[in-house]
């Protein structure tokens, strides 16, 4: 099997990515671990490979598939529950701090997983959602985008790790289907029941379908009707 070196590289690594990499690798683990030609974010003292992925899971498909053939792998996906924005002037002097009105939740997972929906089916793979509060530093030095009126983002760091949701096996994803086994539902039904947008519900349904956890059983007008499949 051919493989390619894959690493985000530490030069462009964010503070958020770096801190989670060290935290999940553990005090007795290692970071930037070379495993069978792949550079991984870390490895615990028990030998589990750690990959921190802040964005789409798509770029990880080949890498994770190969690594799980020889051991356990854990993808850490941070979800920003609360963001604090600190504004500094061009000389680095603190101006003010405020809370961002945007809040994330566990359903953010499907925005990333939709590009690799069958990844959770790999034996030996664990996906862990790290629900974090972060601090985003912004500097008003005129070099940022016009949308931010010249204010640039200098970095993001972990303020607090609230909790985590660990998904070991495909059956763990059933918790994202708030319906009984034989209860029919549509994308809109899921959006209402879960309190999420229709867009996120569509991504969730697509992903869970690809994982074999739900199936199409009919139509209601233009809406496709789904039901849970038997537990894996």
Description:
The protein is of the alpha+beta class and 232 residues long. The protein folds into two domains: 1-79 and 98-133 and 157-168, Trna Endonuclease, Chain: A, domain 1 (3-Layer(aba) Sandwich), CATH 3.40.1350; 176-232, Winged helix-like DNA-binding domain superfamily/Winged helix DNA-binding domain (Arc Repressor Mutant, subunit A). The chain has five helices and nine strands; from the N terminus they run H-E-E-E-H-E-E-H-E-E-H-H-E-E. It has helices at 15-25, 61-67, 109-113, 187-194, 198-210, and strands spanning 30-35, 38-43, 49-52, 73-89, 94-99, 125-140, 151-167, 214-220, 223-228. Strands 1, 2, 3, 4, 5, 6 and 7 form a seven-stranded mixed sheet that branches. A two-stranded antiparallel ribbon has the order 8-9. The longest helix is centred in the last third of the chain and has 13 residues, at 198-210. The protein is globular. 25% of the residues are buried. The model is unreliable at 1-9 (pLDDT under 50).
Give a topology summary.
Layout: H1 15-25, E1 30-35, E2 38-43, E3 49-52, H2 61-67, E4 73-89, E5 94-99, H3 109-113, E6 125-140, E7 151-167, H4 187-194, H5 198-210, E8 214-220, E9 223-228
Parallel strand pairs: 3-4, 4-6
Antiparallel strand pairs: 1-2, 2-3, 4-5, 6-7, 8-9
In brief:
The protein is about 20% helix and about 35% strand.
Q: How many helices?
A: 5
Secondary-structure arrangement, i.e. CATH architecture of the largest domain: 3-Layer(aba) Sandwich
Percentage of residues in strands: 35-45%
Rough outline: globular
The H-and-E topology, N to C, reads as HEEEHEEHEEHHEE
CATH topology category name of the largest domain:
Trna Endonuclease, Chain: A, domain 1
CATH C-level class of the largest domain is: Alpha Beta
Mean pLDDT: 90
Largest sheet: 7 strands, mixed
Number of domains: 2
Rounded to an integer in angstroms, the radius of gyration calculated over CA atoms is: 20 Å
Structural class: alpha+beta
Helix content: 10-25%
> CA-to-CA gap between the ends?
29 Å
Please report the total strand number as a whole number.
Answer: 9
Poorly predicted ranges (pLDDT <50, ≥5 residues)?
1-9
């Amino acid at each position: 099997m051919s493989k390619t070196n894959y690493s985000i590289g530490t030069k462009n690594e964010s503070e958020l990515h770096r801190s989670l990499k060290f935290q999940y690798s553990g005090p007795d683990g290692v970071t930037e671990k070379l495993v069978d030609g792949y550079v991984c974010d870390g490895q615990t003292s028990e030998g589990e490979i750690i990959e921190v992925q802040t964005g789409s899971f798509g770029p990880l498909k080949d890498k994770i598939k190969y690594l799980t053939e020889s051991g356990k792998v854990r993808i850490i996906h941070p979800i920003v529950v609360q963001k604090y924005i600190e504004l500094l002037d061009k000389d680095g002097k603190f101006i003010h701090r405020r809370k961002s009105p945007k809040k994330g939740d566990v359903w953010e997972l499907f925005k990333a997983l939709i590009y690799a929906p069958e990844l959770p089916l790999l034996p030996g793979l664990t996906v862990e959602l790290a629900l974090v509060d972060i601090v985003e530093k912004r500097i008003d030095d005129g070099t940022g985008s016009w949308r931010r009126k010249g204010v640039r983002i200098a970095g993001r760091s972990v303020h607090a790790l609230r909790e985590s949701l660990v998904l070991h096996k495909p059956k763990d994803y059933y918790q994202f289907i708030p319906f009984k086994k034989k209860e029919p539902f549509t994308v809109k039904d899921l959006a209402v029941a879960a309190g999420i947008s229709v867009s996120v519900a569509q991504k969730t349904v697509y992903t869970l379908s690809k994982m074999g956890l739900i199936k199409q059983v009919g139509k209601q007008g233009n809406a496709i009707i789904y039901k849970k499949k038997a537990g894996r």
